[in-house]
Design goal:
By secondary structure, this protein is of the alpha/beta class. It has helices at 15-24, 66-77, 94-100, 142-152, 170-177, 190-202, 231-243, 261-268; strands at 3-8, 29-34, 54-61, 85-89, 105-107, 111-114, 126-129, 160-164, 182-186, 209-212, 222-228, 245-257, 272-274, 278-280, 283-290.
Length: 295
């Protein structure tokens, strides 16, 4: 049977509260989606919505009165200007529709990110099995893609790697699958560390990944440091990152907008011989090799 879908895109009101109101009005399902094409960040434990602008949709029986439901929302939110779209949608296998949105993705020459319900397109390639979900890092965002492409293009055999801001663990797992000897996965968010542990176990490489909050990371310098976070923390952490990479080792930085790249290049050139930036859409990846400068 068809359904009635009511969607509020980018409302300034709390998405959790809107969800509760839609449920009270009779919604049989409520979904959250990104309304502003923002990178997905790891939620704190107990959080539901993740974006600065969140689209909330409620699915109702076809004979529901959409106008009345909108009036109820406006009254409850004390917002006479509240805007929503009302549409009739055909009945579907919603779980299958969601799953069909995610196909295996290739990064570089041989690295694939595959949801568990797909058979890897080429079993002889390097396949990371990782389901899309709430954790940042399923390969779909430009910053993650840039880092994955760097990993695919370099020889990681027997290297030690730090994945700083590991999120879902996608970069740490890819590094392990590409031959890294050991990876330190670092995040301040316990939920990110749990996601990384679960995803590493699902890929049978958990023994090569150790989990740390920033303050528990060992002092030994690594061959490669990956940090796909944000420009502000990257600037602040530059001296510490320099101490965490051995001379001649590599640093890979992303989560950087094009206009933020010059300041980061200037900062990191004190300790790294930086290479030309790689760009995708409005995002930038910076990389370089550690020189002998003291920090």
């Amino acid at each position: 049977m068809p359904w009635l879908r009511i969607t509020l895109a980018g409302s300034p009101h709390d998405p959790d509260h809107i969800s509760e109101l839609l449920g009270a009005a009779g919604a049989v399902a409520v979904t959250f989606e990104d309304a502003a094409d923002q990178p997905i960040l790891e939620p704190l434990p107990g959080e539901t919505h993740l974006w600065g602008r969140t689209q909330v949709s409620g699915l109702f029986a076809a004979d529901a009165d959409g106008t009345h439901i909108l009036d109820q929302l406006r009254d409850a939110l004390a917002d006479a200007t509240l805007h929503a779209t009302v549409a009739v949608v055909d009945d579907q296998d919603w779980e299958r529709v969601w799953m069909d949105q995610f196909q295996p993705l290739r990064f570089g020459r041989r690295l694939w990110i595959c949801p568990h319900w797909h058979t890897p397109p080429n079993p002889q390639d390097v396949n990371v099995m990782l389901d899309p979900g709430l954790a940042f890092g399923t390969g779909t965002h430009a910053t993650t893609a840039l880092c994955l492409e760097w990993l695919d293009a370099h020889d990681l055999r027997n290297k030690t790697v730090i994945d700083y801001g590991c999120g879902s663990g996608i970069l740490a797992i890819a590094a392990a699958k590409l031959g890294a000897q050991h990876i330190w996965a670092v995040d301040h968010d316990p939920q990110a560390l749990t996601a990384t542990a679960n995803n590493a176990a699902a890929n049978a490489i958990g023994s090569r990944i150790s989990l740390h909050e920033p303050d528990t990371l060992p002092q030994a310098a690594a061959d490669i440091l990956l940090a796909n976070i944000l420009a502000g923390p990257l600037l602040e952490l530059a001296p510490r990152f320099a101490r965490m990479v051995r001379p001649g080792g590599d640093i890979v930085l992303s989560g950087i907008l094009s206009e933020q790249a010059p300041a980061l290049l200037e900062k990191y050139q004190a300790w790294f011989n930086m290479e030309p930036a790689a760009t995708r859409e409005e995002w930038v990846r910076l990389s370089g090799q550690r020189n002998d400068a003291a920090c």
